[in-house]
Amino acid sequence: MKKATLLGLVGLVLGSFSTTTLFSEQQTGTLVVTVTDIDPDYEGQLLVTLFDEEEGFPNDYDTGVEIKTIPVRTQKQITVSFENIPFGTYAVAVLHDEDFDAKMDYNWVGIPTEGWVCSNEVFPSLRSPYFSESSFTFDSSRKTLTLEIDY
Fold first, then answer.
1. Taking residues 72-93, what's their average pLDDT?
2. Is pLDDT of 21 > 70?
3. Which of 16, 42, 57, 112 could join 51 via S-S bond, C-beta 3.0 to 4.6 A?
């Protein structure tokens, strides 16, 4: 009888702990990205892509975690939100895709001919930015990035 009561008491105590106490839920938040200095003389679309690894960064938008596509008309600034993003390391790549082909266009020397910016606003000469240069830690319920696009 004492054994059954003891087991019942242990079961009651253990049952009072929720699974979130024993196994912490993955924390998520909202990442807000504001792109400024958009040239309204060029229509097209703004591609804002969130990456969580080097592979594909910054030009292979299909490998990103999430992509937001916003028509550009007369706006000089656009804000997008990525919601329920798990805490971790990320980078953002933005392209003002003026000709709707969903890829960066270059001149004959290899210099971009469309507006772009990556998180941390890294603009290296003669190459695309690396994920490691553009990445940031996302570890709060809400984080805001403001990126000035370059043409």
1. 96
2. no
3. 57
Tokens of 26: 């993955």
Q: What is the CATH number of the domain that holds 88?
A: 2.60.40
Evaluate if residue 145 carries a pLDDT over 80: yes
> How far apart (Å, rounded) are the C-alpha atoms in residues 65 and 52?
7
Q: What is the pLDDT of residue 45?
A: 97
- 98's CB contacts (< 8 A; 6+ apart) are 42, 43, 44, 105, 114, 115
What total of structural domains would you count in the chain?
Answer: 1
Whether 128 shows a pLDDT value over 80: the answer reads: yes
Longest Cα–Cα distance of the chain, Å, equals: 87
Residue 64 in domain: yes
For the whole model, what pTM was predicted? 0.82
CA–CA separation, 82 vs 35, rounded Å?
14
Contact at 8 Å (CB) between 72 and 35? Answer: no
Residue 11 inside a domain? The answer is no
Summary mean pLDDT of the chain: 88
**Which range of residues forms the domain containing residue 134?**
25-148
